[in-house]
Amino acid sequence: MKKSRLTKIIAVILTLTLAFSSFGAVTAGASNAYPITESDNPIGVIFSDIVETLLNFILGLFSNLFNDGPGFVPETEFEGSTENFYEGIGKEFVSKAEDNAKWNLGYANTSLIPDDYDSGAYYIGGYIAIENGFSNVVEGIAEIPGIGPDDMKARCVAINDGTGKGTVLFATIDCIGITNADIKDIRALLADYAEANNIVAINVSSTHTHSCIDTEGLWTKNIAKLLYNGLINGTESEGELVQGTNPEYMAFLKQKVADTLIEAHQNIEEGELTYATKDLGQDYFNNKNRPSSGQLITSIDESGQVVYTGEKEIAMTDIDRFIFTPDNESVDPTMMINIAAHPDVAGLPTESNSGREISGDYLFYCGKFLDDAGYNFMFFQGAIAGIYMSRSVTGDGVPTEQRVEESQRYGFELARMALSLTLTEDEIKADDNLNCADEIAEYGDIEHYSIWYEGWTPVEEVAVDPFLNLYIKQVEVPVSNNLIEAVGKLNMANYVVISHDDGSYSTITEVGYMELGNQFKTVFLPGEICQDLIAPDGASLLAEYSVTAKDFSSSPACRIFGDDVRCFGLMNDAIGYVVPDNDYTNGDPVNHYHELISLGRGVASALMDGLVELNSEIVRV
After folding, report:
1. What is the largest CA-CA distance in the chain?
2. What is the pLDDT of residues 550-583, one digit of tens each?
3. Which of 137, 215, 297, 551 is most buried, judging by how many CB atoms fall within 10 Å of its CB?
């Protein structure tokens, strides 16, 4: 039945409200305001509950104005989501290398910048504001004098242990995020090649860079698209809903990524894999998490018992480094790095710069430095939630002409640290490529400028046993955020959503667990994961620190796989922030802005329960 004229007007007004509220929230940062939702502030908690109830009611009315979008599938018609899904090597996990085992790895990368990037058809994904009319059109490519133009890349590796159990492919894309539906399109392009070459997993992740071409559809001509789609959907008028992303660009990107994954596979060489890890400390990470989030600091009391001090800090500040050294000396080694930090600086609008120039942020500059040092560069983003890059140790007070220079300094410094993990401070000082001599000469008199390697202590590098275990599962997670429901109905992002008979919604995503020898283990998780869900002693999982004054009902990854487990985040899906169920609220948007950009309450427990089930299915042989 056609909706009334009044309903049309309401749909238009609320569509505008959606545009301003949702995309304004994306640009928000965590505030230092008093955390009204701390469990020891009951009045604040009650006020928060009232605000959340009202907001959910209003957004629920808004979402209900629209019919299900093109990606919505009725529960009765949903036949599972196994097409273009790969479970990895399988449920049987070995604990030692076979006699004939040998690491094999291939590498390739490609630029994802189209030739007509300056045509006005492309938009930066990551920041958008009323100052630019909610239209984040690309204005150029960032460039630092003396370094050259920036880039937006896809970096790919193919890896196996030489035992014939299958090859695993990885692609990391410089972008704000890429959905599971789009990733399955990439896998479809590779289906025949994968079957012919015993490829058992195709994993695609994003760096979550806030200064690359939009791949999610939330940062384009939002007002125009939301208005048009809102009217078409809300009034059941004739016409197709326009996509949030640029469909021609997404086809270009998917083909480029697929081709580069094939190239990486064809570049496979035998060699040795080594691993080193070091805690970089708190200073290289900027914490914009919810006030309740963070790893609780412990101490030892007089009786030798571990006690909590009540203070919190960022939970995961490590850098993990792998180096693959091919037996063929004519082939460059590949360095793979895993840290957890938003690449968000280059795209941040300032008074002097719109932030609308394409940049791979610190990852481009880290890769450039390592390339100059003779390494291929591969990156895996970690559990970033509200964790951002920070130059609080090196570079404070150093002048910059443009924000991308801060990304360059962070990237160069990250590369230097990665190259120096096993070196002493004296060895670093003796290496002109590492010792920052130029920066010291130029900025040494700047107040607060310090050198990254002061007090540096080396760590051990170990050989990785040549065996690879990987098992991936599909998990159904609820979609309960009415704002996100509306975005999906209006076709702004490419998700497959299950529409249930009771009026609820859910989607299918993926979780995984991988072991590289006995030296490294990591979970694969979609979205921007709260670190409390991975590392030990996560404060927000405890009733004492959570907004609901309840404990998290599921198990964090460290309780499933051990305290030393790592996380490859934004892996095989972009589902926004993943916040523990017991610390989820829409009633305190100043301190809990993450929840506005998430699928809703219940996602974290669904993912963790999926990991518990996955682990129960693993058979150790």
Report:
1. 77
2. 999 999 999 999 999 999 999 999 999 999 999 9
3. 215
- The rounded distance, in Å, linking the Cα atoms of 460 and 324 is 16
- As a whole number of angstroms, the distance between CA 246 and CA 213 comes to 10
Contact assessment for residue 595 and residue 586, using Cβ atoms and an 8 Å cutoff: yes
E strand or H helix at 546: none
Residue 98 burial by Cβ neighbours in a 10 Å radius (0-12, 13-18, 19+): middle
- Please, are residues 88 and 165 in contact by the beta-carbon 8 Å criterion? no
Q: Is the pLDDT of residue 246 over 80?
A: yes
Q: How far apart are CA 488 and CA 386, in angstroms?
A: 24
pLDDT band at 398 (very low <50, low <70, confident <90, very high): confident
Residues 105, 273: contact at Cβ < 8 Å? yes
Q: Say which amino acid occupies 224.
A: A
When pLDDT is cut at 50, 70 and 90, the band that residue 348 belongs to is confident
Burial of 240 (0-12, 13-18, 19+ CB in 10 A): exposed
Higher-scoring residue by pLDDT: 115, 409: 115
| C-alpha distances in Å from residue 551, one per residue of 316, 430, 605 | 21, 51, 12
Q: Is the pLDDT of residue 185 over 80?
A: yes
Mark 593-616 as b/e (b = at least 16 C-beta within 10 Å). bbbbbbbbbebbbbbbbbbeebbe
